[in-house]
TrEMBL record:
Keywords: ATP-binding, Nucleotide-binding, Transport. Signal peptide: none annotated. SUPFAM superfamilies: P-loop containing nucleoside triphosphate hydrolases (SSF52540). InterPro entries: AAA+_ATPase, ABC_transporter-like_ATP-bd, ABC_transporter-like_CS, ABC_transporter_ATP-bind, P-loop_NTPase. The lineage of its organism: Bacteria, Bacillati, Actinomycetota, Actinomycetes, Propionibacteriales. This is ABC transporter ATP-binding protein. It comes from Nocardioides jiangxiensis.
Length: 274
């Protein structure tokens, strides 16, 4: 249960207001963007701020339609949101008046097709998967930031989407919680075989999680390079994968690609001429 996603020559243009004349102008956010995501793959996406990462995710989620080009999932055009895809955002989007368990059940109610008992059981299973069985009866305000994000992940996984789309889901968390949740996510992905597309600003996070890291360039946004990551993440809890020489080499490779994006245009041109 996982899906192949293809983006072909995707462009996205927004109408924005100019600073001076307040006239509407076209702003090209994405142009000529090609990307293939294999079924069951874990792909991370990095790029400078504003390069269009969230825009790409919104398009795959079906929350927006591209101005040009095509997006398909298992060969079928993406025309809107669907139960085959689930999105986890940076902000914990939990219902404050429902417990952790009831928040997960709520998503299953919306999905339909399960009895109350089945929904309860499914919610328990996924809360256990993210290590929150003991906190099922707590309300969001009684949970830490990391716990709330784990409930959001449990909720997304509970209706068994083929594709999990994550937009900087750990951006608001402290470093230790973040690393723990990264390890949990890898374990969950290995168990479920879900296709994961994960956006992050953090190079270490991108290298630790991704089988491939897609590096985007900005203005207009497109895929600049794809870095294949071949790290042994087994037993990641006991072994500090992030401290290995291989990890550092991948990190440097991605860092260099991103660094080039921050070089001012006139210096890039000069480098080109030289
Ligand atoms: N609805 C919109 N209307 C106008 N412009 C938009 C809209 N959505 C995004 N943009 C613009 O498109 C560009 C890409 O935005 P997007 O949020 O995809 O970037 P991002 O790479 O996710 O940024 P960040 O890393 O800062 O979160 C930005 O310049 C943004 O201002």
């Amino acid at each position: 249960m996982s899906s192949r996603i293809e983006l072909r020559d995707v462009g996205q243009t927004f109408l924005v207001r100019g600073n001076d004349d307040r006239q509407l102008r076209e702003f090209v956010a994405l142009e000529g963007l090609d990307l293939d995501i294999a079924a069951g793959e874990f792909l991370t996406v990095v790029g400078p701020s504003g390069c269009g990462k969230s825009t790409v995710l919104d398009l795959i989620a079906g929350l927006a339609r591209p101005t040009s080009g095509s997006l398909t999932i298992d060969g079928t055009p993406i025309t809107g949101p669907g139960l085959d895809r689930s999105v986890v955002f940076q902000q914990y989007t939990l219902l404050p008046w429902r417990t952790a368990q009831a928040n997960v059940e709520f998503a299953l109610e919306a999905r339909g097709g399960l009895s109350k008992a089945q929904r309860q059981e499914r919610a328990q299973t996924y809360l256990e998967l993210v290590g929150l069985s003991e906190f099922a009866g707590r309300y969001p305000h009684e949970l830490s930031g990391g716990m709330k994000q784990r409930v959001a992940i449990a909720r997304s996984l509970s209706y068994q989407p083929e594709v999990l789309l994550m937009d900087e889901p750990y951006g608001a968390l402290d470093a230790q919680t973040r690393e723990r949740l990264q390890e949990e996510l890898v374990a969950i992905w290995q168990r479920t075989g879900t296709t994961v597309v994960f956006i992050t600003h953090d190079i270490d996070e991108a290298v630790f999680l991704g089988q491939r890291v897609a590096v985007m360039s900005g203005r207009p946004g497109r895929i600049k390079a794809i870095v294949d990551i071949d790290l042994d993440r087994s037993g990641a809890g006991d072994r500090d994968v992030r401290a290995t020489a291989e990890f550092a080499a991948y990190r440097h490779q991605v860092w260099t690609l991103l660094r080039e994006e921050h070089v001012p245009a006139h210096r890039k041109e000069a480098a080109h001429v030289a």
